[in-house]
Amino acid sequence: MKVLRAGKPTYVVLALFTAGSLFPLVWTAIAASRTNTRLAQTPPPFWFGGNLGRNLSIAWTDAHMGTALLNTLVVAGTVAAGTVLLSTLAGFAFARLRFRGSKGLLALVVSTMLIPPQLSVVPLYMLIAELSWTDRLQAVVLPALVSAFGVFFMRQYLAQALPVELVEAARTDGASSLRIVWHVVFPAARPAMAVLGMLTFVMTWNDFFWPIIALTQNGSPTVQVALTGLGRGYIPDQSVIMAGALLGTLPLLLVFLVFGRQIVGGIMQGAVKG
Amino acid sequence: MSDETVLLSPASSPATGRDAGGRRQVWRSRRYRWDLRLSPYAFVAPFFLFFTAFGLFPLLYTGWAALHQVELTDPGAMTWVGLRNFTRLWDDAFFWNALRNTVTIGLLSTVPQLLIALCLAHLLNYRLRGSAFFRVAVLTPYATSVAAATLVFVLLFGRDYGMVNWALSTVGFGPVDWQNGTLASQVAVSTIVVWRWTGYNALIYLAAMQAVPGDLYESAALDGASRWQQFRHVTVPALRPTIFFTCVVSTIGATQLFGEPLLFNGGSGATGGSDHQFQTLGLYLYEQGWVNLHLGRASAIAWAMFLMLLLVAGAVRLVRGGPR
Protein backbone atom coordinates (compact mmCIF):
# COMPACT_ATOMS: atom_id res chain seq x y z
CA MET A 1 0.00 0.00 0.00
CA LYS A 2 1.09 3.50 -0.77
CA VAL A 3 1.95 5.49 2.32
CA LEU A 4 2.83 8.92 0.98
CA ARG A 5 1.95 11.46 3.58
CA ALA A 6 -0.37 14.25 2.50
CA GLY A 7 0.97 17.80 2.36
CA LYS A 8 -0.91 20.99 3.14
CA PRO A 9 -2.10 21.53 -0.45
CA THR A 10 -3.78 18.13 -0.37
CA TYR A 11 -5.79 19.14 2.68
CA VAL A 12 -6.75 22.44 1.08
CA VAL A 13 -8.01 20.75 -2.09
CA LEU A 14 -9.86 18.09 -0.11
CA ALA A 15 -11.45 20.78 2.02
CA LEU A 16 -12.64 22.47 -1.17
CA PHE A 17 -14.11 19.19 -2.41
CA THR A 18 -15.85 18.71 0.94
CA ALA A 19 -17.25 22.23 0.78
CA GLY A 20 -18.48 21.65 -2.76
CA SER A 21 -20.12 18.39 -1.76
CA LEU A 22 -21.85 19.83 1.28
CA PHE A 23 -22.67 23.35 0.08
CA PRO A 24 -25.88 22.54 -1.88
CA LEU A 25 -27.17 20.63 1.15
CA VAL A 26 -26.38 23.42 3.60
CA TRP A 27 -27.90 25.94 1.24
CA THR A 28 -31.08 23.84 1.06
CA ALA A 29 -31.42 24.38 4.80
CA ILE A 30 -30.64 28.10 4.46
CA ALA A 31 -33.25 28.55 1.73
CA ALA A 32 -35.77 26.49 3.74
CA SER A 33 -35.37 28.89 6.66
CA ARG A 34 -36.17 31.98 4.56
CA THR A 35 -39.29 33.33 2.87
CA ASN A 36 -40.27 33.14 -0.77
CA THR A 37 -39.79 36.90 -1.17
CA ARG A 38 -36.29 36.78 0.30
CA LEU A 39 -35.32 34.09 -2.24
CA ALA A 40 -36.40 36.44 -5.02
CA GLN A 41 -33.81 39.05 -4.08
CA THR A 42 -30.19 39.47 -4.95
CA PRO A 43 -27.67 38.66 -3.54
CA PRO A 44 -29.05 35.30 -2.37
CA PRO A 45 -29.08 34.58 1.39
CA PHE A 46 -25.92 33.10 2.91
CA TRP A 47 -27.14 32.53 6.43
CA PHE A 48 -30.19 31.06 8.15
CA GLY A 49 -33.41 32.99 8.63
CA GLY A 50 -36.24 32.44 11.08
CA ASN A 51 -38.82 30.76 8.90
CA LEU A 52 -37.75 27.13 9.06
CA GLY A 53 -40.52 25.88 11.37
CA ARG A 54 -43.30 27.40 9.31
CA ASN A 55 -41.94 26.06 6.02
CA LEU A 56 -41.36 22.59 7.42
CA SER A 57 -44.88 22.35 8.77
CA ILE A 58 -46.41 23.47 5.46
CA ALA A 59 -44.29 20.93 3.60
CA TRP A 60 -45.18 18.25 6.15
CA THR A 61 -48.95 18.58 5.73
CA ASP A 62 -49.85 20.47 2.56
CA ALA A 63 -47.19 18.83 0.39
CA HIS A 64 -47.83 15.36 1.89
CA MET A 65 -44.23 15.05 3.06
CA GLY A 66 -45.36 13.40 6.30
CA THR A 67 -47.26 10.64 4.48
CA ALA A 68 -44.48 10.40 1.95
CA LEU A 69 -41.79 9.89 4.58
CA LEU A 70 -43.78 7.12 6.25
CA ASN A 71 -44.49 5.43 2.91
CA THR A 72 -40.85 5.63 1.87
CA LEU A 73 -39.71 4.19 5.19
CA VAL A 74 -42.06 1.23 4.69
CA VAL A 75 -41.06 0.75 1.05
CA ALA A 76 -37.30 1.10 1.53
CA GLY A 77 -37.34 -1.05 4.67
CA THR A 78 -39.36 -3.86 3.06
CA VAL A 79 -37.34 -3.81 -0.13
CA ALA A 80 -34.03 -3.83 1.78
CA ALA A 81 -35.08 -6.75 4.01
CA GLY A 82 -36.62 -8.70 1.13
CA THR A 83 -33.69 -8.13 -1.21
CA VAL A 84 -31.20 -9.24 1.44
CA LEU A 85 -33.17 -12.42 2.11
CA LEU A 86 -33.73 -13.38 -1.54
CA SER A 87 -30.18 -12.46 -2.53
CA THR A 88 -28.57 -14.37 0.34
CA LEU A 89 -30.53 -17.56 -0.38
CA ALA A 90 -29.84 -17.41 -4.11
CA GLY A 91 -26.26 -16.23 -3.60
CA PHE A 92 -25.59 -19.19 -1.28
CA ALA A 93 -27.02 -21.65 -3.79
CA PHE A 94 -24.90 -20.17 -6.59
CA ALA A 95 -21.75 -20.00 -4.50
CA ARG A 96 -21.79 -23.30 -2.63
CA LEU A 97 -24.36 -25.75 -4.00
CA ARG A 98 -24.10 -27.82 -7.15
CA PHE A 99 -27.21 -28.07 -9.28
CA ARG A 100 -28.04 -28.43 -12.92
CA GLY A 101 -28.37 -25.13 -14.77
CA SER A 102 -26.69 -23.04 -12.07
CA LYS A 103 -24.12 -21.53 -14.44
CA GLY A 104 -26.73 -20.61 -17.02
CA LEU A 105 -29.10 -19.10 -14.45
CA LEU A 106 -26.36 -17.01 -12.88
CA ALA A 107 -25.23 -15.77 -16.30
CA LEU A 108 -28.84 -14.83 -17.09
CA VAL A 109 -29.12 -12.80 -13.88
CA VAL A 110 -25.77 -11.07 -14.34
CA SER A 111 -26.52 -10.22 -17.97
CA THR A 112 -29.56 -8.19 -16.87
CA MET A 113 -27.53 -6.25 -14.31
CA LEU A 114 -26.69 -3.32 -16.56
CA ILE A 115 -29.95 -3.01 -18.51
CA PRO A 116 -31.67 0.36 -17.99
CA PRO A 117 -35.09 0.23 -16.26
CA GLN A 118 -36.63 2.11 -19.19
CA LEU A 119 -36.46 -1.10 -21.19
CA SER A 120 -39.10 -2.81 -19.12
CA VAL A 121 -41.17 0.07 -17.84
CA VAL A 122 -44.07 -0.14 -20.30
CA PRO A 123 -44.99 -3.82 -19.73
CA LEU A 124 -44.40 -3.33 -16.01
CA TYR A 125 -46.95 -0.53 -16.05
CA MET A 126 -49.39 -2.65 -18.06
CA LEU A 127 -48.90 -5.42 -15.49
CA ILE A 128 -49.66 -3.31 -12.44
CA ALA A 129 -52.56 -1.62 -14.23
CA GLU A 130 -53.96 -5.10 -14.92
CA LEU A 131 -53.57 -6.00 -11.24
CA SER A 132 -55.07 -2.62 -10.15
CA TRP A 133 -51.91 -1.84 -8.22
CA THR A 134 -51.43 1.68 -9.51
CA ASP A 135 -50.94 4.05 -6.60
CA ARG A 136 -50.48 1.17 -4.16
CA LEU A 137 -47.19 0.64 -2.38
CA GLN A 138 -46.82 -2.96 -3.53
CA ALA A 139 -46.42 -1.58 -7.06
CA VAL A 140 -43.04 -0.15 -6.04
CA VAL A 141 -42.06 -2.81 -3.50
CA LEU A 142 -42.44 -6.07 -5.43
CA PRO A 143 -40.62 -5.12 -8.67
CA ALA A 144 -37.79 -3.63 -6.59
CA LEU A 145 -37.11 -7.01 -4.98
CA VAL A 146 -35.47 -8.11 -8.23
CA SER A 147 -31.85 -7.21 -7.56
CA ALA A 148 -29.41 -8.89 -9.90
CA PHE A 149 -26.69 -6.90 -8.17
CA GLY A 150 -27.73 -8.30 -4.80
CA VAL A 151 -27.52 -11.92 -5.95
CA PHE A 152 -24.16 -11.31 -7.58
CA PHE A 153 -22.85 -9.42 -4.54
CA MET A 154 -23.86 -12.17 -2.08
CA ARG A 155 -22.53 -14.91 -4.35
CA GLN A 156 -19.15 -13.20 -4.58
CA TYR A 157 -19.01 -12.66 -0.84
CA LEU A 158 -20.04 -16.17 0.16
CA ALA A 159 -17.70 -17.73 -2.39
CA GLN A 160 -14.81 -16.44 -0.31
CA ALA A 161 -16.27 -16.06 3.20
CA LEU A 162 -18.03 -19.41 3.54
CA PRO A 163 -15.64 -22.39 3.47
CA VAL A 164 -16.96 -25.46 1.61
CA GLU A 165 -15.74 -27.59 4.52
CA LEU A 166 -18.06 -25.81 6.91
CA VAL A 167 -21.12 -26.68 4.80
CA GLU A 168 -19.89 -30.25 4.32
CA ALA A 169 -19.27 -30.68 8.04
CA ALA A 170 -22.77 -29.49 8.87
CA ARG A 171 -24.15 -31.97 6.34
CA THR A 172 -22.18 -34.86 7.80
CA ASP A 173 -23.67 -33.95 11.15
CA GLY A 174 -27.05 -34.55 9.56
CA ALA A 175 -28.19 -30.94 9.31
CA SER A 176 -30.83 -30.27 6.71
CA SER A 177 -30.25 -27.53 4.12
CA LEU A 178 -32.62 -25.23 5.93
CA ARG A 179 -30.69 -25.66 9.18
CA ILE A 180 -27.44 -25.06 7.33
CA VAL A 181 -28.79 -21.79 5.96
CA TRP A 182 -29.94 -20.67 9.38
CA HIS A 183 -26.93 -21.77 11.45
CA VAL A 184 -24.03 -21.58 9.00
CA VAL A 185 -24.83 -19.37 6.01
CA PHE A 186 -26.56 -16.47 7.72
CA PRO A 187 -23.86 -16.00 10.39
CA ALA A 188 -21.13 -16.14 7.74
CA ALA A 189 -22.99 -13.73 5.46
CA ARG A 190 -23.93 -11.20 8.13
CA PRO A 191 -21.42 -8.44 7.25
CA ALA A 192 -22.33 -8.56 3.56
CA MET A 193 -26.04 -8.72 4.40
CA ALA A 194 -25.70 -5.53 6.43
CA VAL A 195 -23.88 -3.73 3.62
CA LEU A 196 -26.33 -4.91 0.97
CA GLY A 197 -29.21 -3.89 3.20
CA MET A 198 -27.88 -0.37 3.68
CA LEU A 199 -27.05 0.13 0.01
CA THR A 200 -30.48 -1.18 -1.01
CA PHE A 201 -32.18 1.07 1.53
CA VAL A 202 -30.39 4.16 0.18
CA MET A 203 -31.05 3.21 -3.45
CA THR A 204 -34.72 2.45 -2.83
CA TRP A 205 -35.22 5.63 -0.83
CA ASN A 206 -33.91 7.62 -3.79
CA ASP A 207 -35.56 5.52 -6.49
CA PHE A 208 -37.17 7.93 -8.91
CA PHE A 209 -38.21 6.73 -12.35
CA TRP A 210 -40.58 3.90 -11.50
CA PRO A 211 -42.29 5.50 -8.44
CA ILE A 212 -43.04 8.61 -10.53
CA ILE A 213 -44.91 6.38 -12.97
CA ALA A 214 -46.60 4.01 -10.53
CA LEU A 215 -47.65 6.42 -7.75
CA THR A 216 -49.32 9.84 -7.52
CA GLN A 217 -48.87 12.91 -5.37
CA ASN A 218 -52.31 12.69 -3.76
CA GLY A 219 -52.52 8.91 -3.42
CA SER A 220 -49.66 7.14 -1.70
CA PRO A 221 -46.55 9.08 -2.68
CA THR A 222 -42.99 8.22 -1.78
CA VAL A 223 -40.71 11.11 -0.87
CA GLN A 224 -39.46 11.39 -4.44
CA VAL A 225 -43.00 11.52 -5.82
CA ALA A 226 -43.98 14.23 -3.34
CA LEU A 227 -40.84 16.23 -4.16
CA THR A 228 -41.59 15.93 -7.87
CA GLY A 229 -45.06 17.28 -7.20
CA LEU A 230 -43.45 20.21 -5.37
CA GLY A 231 -41.01 20.82 -8.20
CA ARG A 232 -43.81 20.89 -10.75
CA GLY A 233 -45.65 23.70 -9.04
CA TYR A 234 -47.85 21.87 -6.53
CA ILE A 235 -46.96 24.61 -4.05
CA PRO A 236 -45.38 27.65 -5.71
CA ASP A 237 -43.39 28.79 -2.67
CA GLN A 238 -39.65 28.19 -3.17
CA SER A 239 -38.83 28.22 0.54
CA VAL A 240 -41.46 25.51 1.17
CA ILE A 241 -40.06 23.49 -1.75
CA MET A 242 -36.63 23.69 -0.12
CA ALA A 243 -38.15 22.62 3.21
CA GLY A 244 -39.59 19.59 1.43
CA ALA A 245 -36.23 18.79 -0.14
CA LEU A 246 -34.66 19.07 3.31
CA LEU A 247 -37.24 16.73 4.88
CA GLY A 248 -36.73 14.21 2.11
CA THR A 249 -32.96 14.22 2.47
CA LEU A 250 -32.49 14.43 6.25
CA PRO A 251 -33.32 10.78 7.05
CA LEU A 252 -30.66 9.53 4.64
CA LEU A 253 -28.14 12.06 5.94
CA LEU A 254 -28.76 10.64 9.40
CA VAL A 255 -28.18 7.13 8.06
CA PHE A 256 -24.92 8.40 6.56
CA LEU A 257 -23.91 10.06 9.79
CA VAL A 258 -24.29 6.78 11.67
CA PHE A 259 -23.31 4.20 9.04
CA GLY A 260 -21.17 6.35 6.73
CA ARG A 261 -18.02 4.30 7.26
CA GLN A 262 -19.83 1.02 6.56
CA ILE A 263 -21.47 2.40 3.42
CA VAL A 264 -18.13 3.70 2.17
CA GLY A 265 -16.63 0.30 2.94
CA GLY A 266 -19.44 -1.46 1.13
CA ILE A 267 -19.04 0.60 -2.03
CA MET A 268 -15.27 0.08 -2.04
CA GLN A 269 -15.70 -3.64 -1.36
CA GLY A 270 -18.22 -3.98 -4.17
CA ALA A 271 -15.87 -2.12 -6.48
CA VAL A 272 -12.98 -4.50 -5.93
CA LYS A 273 -15.10 -7.58 -6.45
CA GLY A 274 -17.40 -6.22 -9.13
CA MET B 1 -30.55 -37.22 16.21
CA SER B 2 -27.74 -39.73 15.95
CA ASP B 3 -28.13 -43.43 15.28
CA GLU B 4 -27.36 -44.48 18.88
CA THR B 5 -30.53 -42.92 20.22
CA VAL B 6 -32.52 -45.23 18.00
CA LEU B 7 -30.48 -48.37 18.68
CA LEU B 8 -30.27 -47.87 22.41
CA SER B 9 -33.87 -46.91 22.79
CA PRO B 10 -35.01 -48.94 25.82
CA ALA B 11 -38.71 -48.72 25.02
CA SER B 12 -38.61 -50.99 22.00
CA SER B 13 -37.71 -54.68 21.90
CA PRO B 14 -34.42 -55.49 20.11
CA ALA B 15 -36.06 -56.95 17.00
CA THR B 16 -38.63 -54.29 16.25
CA GLY B 17 -36.13 -51.65 17.26
CA ARG B 18 -33.68 -52.70 14.60
CA ASP B 19 -36.47 -52.99 12.09
CA ALA B 20 -37.87 -49.52 12.79
CA GLY B 21 -34.36 -48.10 12.89
CA GLY B 22 -33.64 -49.56 9.48
CA ARG B 23 -36.82 -48.16 8.00
CA ARG B 24 -36.14 -44.83 9.60
CA GLN B 25 -32.65 -44.85 8.18
CA VAL B 26 -33.90 -45.60 4.66
CA TRP B 27 -36.39 -42.81 4.96
CA ARG B 28 -33.75 -40.48 6.34
CA SER B 29 -31.26 -41.17 3.59
CA ARG B 30 -33.97 -40.71 1.00
CA ARG B 31 -34.90 -37.39 2.57
CA TYR B 32 -31.22 -36.48 2.59
CA ARG B 33 -30.91 -37.22 -1.11
CA TRP B 34 -34.01 -35.20 -1.98
CA ASP B 35 -32.80 -32.37 0.23
CA LEU B 36 -29.43 -32.37 -1.52
CA ARG B 37 -30.98 -32.41 -4.96
CA LEU B 38 -33.90 -30.04 -4.52
CA SER B 39 -32.80 -27.49 -1.93
CA PRO B 40 -30.65 -25.50 -4.38
CA TYR B 41 -33.73 -24.93 -6.51
CA ALA B 42 -35.76 -24.04 -3.45
CA PHE B 43 -33.17 -21.41 -2.53
CA VAL B 44 -33.07 -19.73 -5.94
CA ALA B 45 -36.82 -20.11 -6.56
CA PRO B 46 -38.04 -17.07 -4.57
CA PHE B 47 -35.65 -14.78 -6.40
CA PHE B 48 -36.46 -16.24 -9.80
CA LEU B 49 -40.17 -15.96 -9.16
CA PHE B 50 -39.83 -12.18 -8.88
CA PHE B 51 -37.14 -12.09 -11.53
CA THR B 52 -39.40 -13.75 -14.09
CA ALA B 53 -42.49 -11.70 -13.27
CA PHE B 54 -40.95 -8.25 -12.83
CA GLY B 55 -37.62 -8.55 -14.65
CA LEU B 56 -37.56 -10.96 -17.55
CA PHE B 57 -41.17 -10.80 -18.70
CA PRO B 58 -41.38 -6.97 -18.97
CA LEU B 59 -37.99 -6.86 -20.65
CA LEU B 60 -39.04 -9.23 -23.43
CA TYR B 61 -42.61 -7.99 -23.69
CA THR B 62 -41.39 -4.46 -24.48
CA GLY B 63 -40.45 -5.69 -27.95
CA TRP B 64 -43.94 -7.07 -28.48
CA ALA B 65 -45.63 -3.91 -27.18
CA ALA B 66 -43.50 -1.80 -29.53
CA LEU B 67 -45.27 -3.46 -32.46
CA HIS B 68 -48.69 -2.39 -31.21
CA GLN B 69 -50.71 0.70 -30.63
CA VAL B 70 -51.30 0.79 -26.87
CA GLU B 71 -52.84 3.74 -25.08
CA LEU B 72 -52.29 4.59 -21.42
CA THR B 73 -56.03 5.07 -20.96
CA ASP B 74 -56.64 1.39 -21.75
CA PRO B 75 -53.38 -0.57 -21.46
CA GLY B 76 -55.22 -3.88 -21.98
CA ALA B 77 -56.26 -3.10 -25.56
CA MET B 78 -53.49 -3.63 -28.11
CA THR B 79 -53.78 -3.09 -31.86
CA TRP B 80 -51.16 -4.55 -34.16
CA VAL B 81 -49.37 -1.85 -36.17
CA GLY B 82 -46.22 -3.66 -37.26
CA LEU B 83 -43.21 -1.41 -37.46
CA ARG B 84 -45.15 1.84 -37.58
CA ASN B 85 -43.95 2.98 -34.15
CA PHE B 86 -40.39 2.64 -35.39
CA THR B 87 -40.84 4.32 -38.78
CA ARG B 88 -42.58 7.17 -37.01
CA LEU B 89 -39.61 7.55 -34.69
CA TRP B 90 -37.27 7.68 -37.69
CA ASP B 91 -39.12 10.75 -39.03
CA ASP B 92 -39.52 12.34 -35.62
CA ALA B 93 -37.39 15.45 -35.16
CA PHE B 94 -37.95 15.38 -31.39
CA PHE B 95 -36.51 11.88 -31.20
CA TRP B 96 -33.30 12.88 -32.95
CA ASN B 97 -33.14 16.01 -30.83
CA ALA B 98 -33.46 13.89 -27.67
CA LEU B 99 -30.80 11.50 -28.95
CA ARG B 100 -28.42 14.40 -29.63
CA ASN B 101 -29.07 15.91 -26.21
CA THR B 102 -28.52 12.56 -24.50
CA VAL B 103 -25.13 12.22 -26.14
CA THR B 104 -24.09 15.83 -25.38
CA ILE B 105 -25.24 15.77 -21.77
CA GLY B 106 -23.72 12.31 -21.42
CA LEU B 107 -20.31 13.58 -22.49
CA LEU B 108 -20.61 16.80 -20.48
CA SER B 109 -21.37 14.83 -17.33
CA THR B 110 -19.35 11.63 -17.68
CA VAL B 111 -15.98 13.01 -18.79
CA PRO B 112 -15.50 15.68 -16.06
CA GLN B 113 -17.05 13.39 -13.46
CA LEU B 114 -14.55 10.59 -14.03
CA LEU B 115 -11.54 12.89 -14.40
CA ILE B 116 -12.33 14.73 -11.18
CA ALA B 117 -13.05 11.44 -9.43
CA LEU B 118 -9.64 10.11 -10.46
CA CYS B 119 -7.86 13.16 -9.04
CA LEU B 120 -9.97 13.07 -5.89
CA ALA B 121 -9.19 9.39 -5.37
CA HIS B 122 -5.49 10.14 -5.80
CA LEU B 123 -5.69 12.72 -3.00
CA LEU B 124 -7.72 10.42 -0.76
CA ASN B 125 -5.07 7.74 -1.24
CA TYR B 126 -2.45 9.77 0.64
CA ARG B 127 -2.00 9.05 4.31
CA LEU B 128 -4.50 11.51 5.72
CA ARG B 129 -5.67 12.67 9.06
CA GLY B 130 -9.49 12.42 9.08
CA SER B 131 -9.57 10.23 5.98
CA ALA B 132 -12.85 8.60 7.07
CA PHE B 133 -14.44 12.03 7.35
CA PHE B 134 -13.36 13.07 3.85
CA ARG B 135 -14.60 9.82 2.36
CA VAL B 136 -18.04 10.14 3.90
CA ALA B 137 -18.17 13.86 3.06
CA VAL B 138 -17.53 13.40 -0.65
CA LEU B 139 -20.11 10.61 -0.71
CA THR B 140 -22.95 12.67 0.80
CA PRO B 141 -24.19 13.92 -2.60
CA TYR B 142 -24.83 10.25 -3.39
CA ALA B 143 -27.25 10.17 -0.45
CA THR B 144 -29.18 13.08 -1.93
CA SER B 145 -31.99 12.03 -4.24
CA VAL B 146 -32.25 13.21 -7.83
CA ALA B 147 -35.39 15.11 -6.91
CA ALA B 148 -33.99 16.95 -3.89
CA ALA B 149 -30.72 17.75 -5.66
CA THR B 150 -32.41 19.04 -8.80
CA LEU B 151 -34.82 21.25 -6.86
CA VAL B 152 -31.87 22.93 -5.14
CA PHE B 153 -29.87 23.31 -8.32
CA VAL B 154 -32.86 24.89 -10.09
CA LEU B 155 -32.66 27.67 -7.49
CA LEU B 156 -28.86 27.90 -7.59
CA PHE B 157 -29.00 28.18 -11.40
CA GLY B 158 -31.87 30.70 -11.37
CA ARG B 159 -31.40 33.39 -14.00
CA ASP B 160 -32.35 36.40 -11.88
CA TYR B 161 -31.69 35.46 -8.26
CA GLY B 162 -29.55 32.34 -8.46
CA MET B 163 -26.30 31.91 -6.58
CA VAL B 164 -24.35 30.92 -9.69
CA ASN B 165 -25.24 34.03 -11.66
CA TRP B 166 -24.61 36.20 -8.60
CA ALA B 167 -21.14 34.69 -8.26
CA LEU B 168 -20.49 35.21 -11.98
CA SER B 169 -21.67 38.83 -11.72
CA THR B 170 -19.11 39.57 -8.99
CA VAL B 171 -16.38 38.78 -11.52
CA GLY B 172 -18.13 40.66 -14.30
CA PHE B 173 -19.85 37.83 -16.16
CA GLY B 174 -23.42 37.03 -16.92
CA PRO B 175 -26.23 36.78 -16.41
CA VAL B 176 -26.44 33.35 -18.08
CA ASP B 177 -29.90 31.98 -18.86
CA TRP B 178 -29.35 28.49 -17.45
CA GLN B 179 -32.90 27.41 -18.29
CA ASN B 180 -33.35 28.57 -21.86
CA GLY B 181 -29.88 28.54 -23.34
CA THR B 182 -29.24 25.28 -25.17
CA LEU B 183 -25.65 24.69 -24.12
CA ALA B 184 -26.10 26.53 -20.81
CA SER B 185 -29.04 24.34 -19.77
CA GLN B 186 -27.17 21.20 -20.77
CA VAL B 187 -24.17 22.30 -18.72
CA ALA B 188 -26.46 22.97 -15.75
CA VAL B 189 -28.12 19.55 -16.00
CA SER B 190 -24.71 17.91 -16.33
CA THR B 191 -23.51 19.76 -13.24
CA ILE B 192 -26.18 18.04 -11.15
CA VAL B 193 -25.03 14.64 -12.39
CA VAL B 194 -21.38 15.48 -11.76
CA TRP B 195 -22.16 16.72 -8.25
CA ARG B 196 -24.08 13.57 -7.31
CA TRP B 197 -21.72 10.93 -8.72
CA THR B 198 -18.13 12.19 -8.50
CA GLY B 199 -17.57 11.11 -4.89
CA TYR B 200 -19.04 7.67 -5.56
CA ASN B 201 -16.70 7.08 -8.49
CA ALA B 202 -13.78 8.45 -6.49
CA LEU B 203 -14.35 5.76 -3.86
CA ILE B 204 -14.37 3.07 -6.53
CA TYR B 205 -11.06 4.38 -7.90
CA LEU B 206 -9.69 4.62 -4.37
CA ALA B 207 -10.51 0.96 -3.73
CA ALA B 208 -8.62 0.02 -6.88
CA MET B 209 -5.66 2.27 -5.99
CA GLN B 210 -5.28 0.59 -2.62
CA ALA B 211 -4.89 -2.72 -4.41
CA VAL B 212 -1.88 -1.45 -6.37
CA PRO B 213 1.28 -3.03 -4.87
CA GLY B 214 3.39 -0.48 -3.01
CA ASP B 215 6.72 -1.69 -4.40
CA LEU B 216 5.66 -0.45 -7.85
CA TYR B 217 5.69 3.06 -6.41
CA GLU B 218 8.93 2.44 -4.53
CA SER B 219 10.78 1.33 -7.63
CA ALA B 220 9.29 4.21 -9.58
CA ALA B 221 10.49 6.60 -6.87
CA LEU B 222 13.96 5.00 -6.99
CA ASP B 223 13.99 5.65 -10.72
CA GLY B 224 13.42 9.29 -9.90
CA ALA B 225 9.76 9.53 -10.93
CA SER B 226 7.94 12.56 -9.58
CA ARG B 227 4.55 12.19 -7.90
CA TRP B 228 2.83 13.22 -11.10
CA GLN B 229 4.86 10.72 -13.13
CA GLN B 230 4.01 8.00 -10.63
CA PHE B 231 0.34 8.85 -10.99
CA ARG B 232 0.61 8.92 -14.76
CA HIS B 233 2.74 5.80 -15.27
CA VAL B 234 1.90 3.56 -12.31
CA THR B 235 -1.57 4.43 -11.01
CA VAL B 236 -3.45 5.03 -14.25
CA PRO B 237 -2.24 1.86 -16.02
CA ALA B 238 -3.01 -0.24 -12.94
CA LEU B 239 -6.49 1.25 -12.81
CA ARG B 240 -7.32 0.64 -16.46
CA PRO B 241 -9.90 -2.14 -15.84
CA THR B 242 -11.60 -0.05 -13.15
CA ILE B 243 -11.65 3.01 -15.39
CA PHE B 244 -13.20 0.90 -18.12
CA PHE B 245 -15.81 -0.39 -15.66
CA THR B 246 -16.78 3.10 -14.47
CA CYS B 247 -16.98 4.31 -18.08
CA VAL B 248 -19.44 1.52 -18.87
CA VAL B 249 -21.58 2.19 -15.80
CA SER B 250 -21.57 5.98 -16.35
CA THR B 251 -22.46 5.59 -20.02
CA ILE B 252 -25.42 3.41 -19.13
CA GLY B 253 -26.41 5.93 -16.46
CA ALA B 254 -26.17 8.76 -18.98
CA THR B 255 -28.35 6.89 -21.47
CA GLN B 256 -31.19 6.68 -18.99
CA LEU B 257 -30.90 10.24 -17.62
CA PHE B 258 -34.40 11.26 -16.63
CA GLY B 259 -35.01 12.91 -13.26
CA GLU B 260 -32.63 15.83 -13.66
CA PRO B 261 -34.04 17.08 -17.00
CA LEU B 262 -37.62 16.41 -15.85
CA LEU B 263 -37.33 18.56 -12.74
CA PHE B 264 -34.92 21.16 -14.10
CA ASN B 265 -37.85 22.25 -16.22
CA GLY B 266 -39.99 23.39 -13.30
CA GLY B 267 -43.70 23.10 -13.87
CA SER B 268 -43.89 22.77 -17.62
CA GLY B 269 -44.32 19.07 -18.30
CA ALA B 270 -41.81 16.63 -19.68
CA THR B 271 -40.63 18.62 -22.68
CA GLY B 272 -37.16 19.27 -21.30
CA GLY B 273 -37.30 23.04 -21.71
CA SER B 274 -39.49 25.34 -23.78
CA ASP B 275 -37.58 24.36 -26.90
CA HIS B 276 -36.84 20.75 -25.88
CA GLN B 277 -33.27 21.99 -25.41
CA PHE B 278 -32.43 19.50 -22.64
CA GLN B 279 -34.91 16.71 -23.32
CA THR B 280 -33.16 13.35 -23.10
CA LEU B 281 -34.28 10.01 -24.53
CA GLY B 282 -35.40 8.84 -21.09
CA LEU B 283 -37.52 11.95 -20.72
CA TYR B 284 -38.90 11.68 -24.26
CA LEU B 285 -39.95 8.09 -23.53
CA TYR B 286 -41.80 9.30 -20.45
CA GLU B 287 -43.44 12.14 -22.40
CA GLN B 288 -44.64 9.81 -25.15
CA GLY B 289 -45.94 7.21 -22.69
CA TRP B 290 -47.27 9.13 -19.74
CA VAL B 291 -48.02 12.62 -21.09
CA ASN B 292 -49.11 11.82 -24.65
CA LEU B 293 -50.42 8.40 -23.53
CA HIS B 294 -48.79 6.38 -26.36
CA LEU B 295 -47.32 3.33 -24.60
CA GLY B 296 -46.52 1.56 -27.88
CA ARG B 297 -44.36 4.42 -29.07
CA ALA B 298 -42.71 4.61 -25.67
CA SER B 299 -41.74 0.94 -26.07
CA ALA B 300 -40.23 1.71 -29.47
CA ILE B 301 -38.09 4.44 -27.86
CA ALA B 302 -36.99 1.94 -25.21
CA TRP B 303 -35.83 -0.41 -27.94
CA ALA B 304 -34.03 2.41 -29.70
CA MET B 305 -32.17 3.09 -26.44
CA PHE B 306 -31.27 -0.57 -26.16
CA LEU B 307 -30.03 -0.58 -29.76
CA MET B 308 -27.90 2.44 -28.99
CA LEU B 309 -26.30 0.71 -26.01
CA LEU B 310 -25.64 -2.38 -28.13
CA LEU B 311 -23.97 -0.20 -30.77
CA VAL B 312 -21.77 1.43 -28.14
CA ALA B 313 -20.92 -1.96 -26.69
CA GLY B 314 -20.06 -3.24 -30.16
CA ALA B 315 -17.86 -0.23 -30.86
CA VAL B 316 -16.06 -0.67 -27.53
CA ARG B 317 -15.50 -4.33 -28.29
CA LEU B 318 -14.04 -3.45 -31.70
CA VAL B 319 -11.69 -0.86 -30.20
CA ARG B 320 -10.57 -3.06 -27.32
CA GLY B 321 -10.31 -6.19 -29.42
CA GLY B 322 -12.73 -8.46 -27.59
CA PRO B 323 -13.95 -8.55 -24.01
CA ARG B 324 -11.50 -8.76 -21.18
UniProtKB/TrEMBL annotation, chain A:
CDD domains: TM_PBP2 (cd06261)
UniProt domain ABC transmembrane type-1: residue ranges: 69-259
Keyword Cell membrane: yes
Pfam families on file: BPD_transp_1
Protein location: Cell membrane
Annotated TM spans: 68-93, 105-128, 140-159, 180-205, 240-259
Keyword annotations from UniProtKB, A to Z: Cell membrane, Membrane, Transmembrane, Transmembrane helix, Transport
Record membrane topology: Multi-pass membrane protein
Principal location listed in the UniProt entry: membrane
Keyword Transmembrane among UniProt keywords: yes
Family: Belongs to the binding-protein-dependent transport system permease family.
Protein name as catalogued: Sugar ABC transporter permease
Origin organism lineage: Bacteria, Bacillati, Actinomycetota, Actinomycetes, Kitasatosporales
Automatic annotation (TrEMBL), chain B:
Residues annotated as domain ABC transmembrane type-1: 99-320
Gene3D superfamilies in the cross-refs: MetI-like
Keyword match Transmembrane: yes
Coiled-coil intervals, chain numbering: none
Pfam family name, one: BPD_transp_1
Entry similarity comment: Belongs to the binding-protein-dependent transport system permease family.
Bilayer-spanning residue ranges: 38-61, 103-124, 136-158, 300-319
SUPFAM superfamilies recorded: MetI-like
Lipid bilayer topology: Multi-pass membrane protein
Name this polypeptide is given: ABC transporter permease
Record InterPro entries: ABC_transporter_permease, MetI-like, MetI-like_sf
Alphabetized UniProt keyword annotations: Cell membrane, Membrane, Transmembrane, Transmembrane helix, Transport
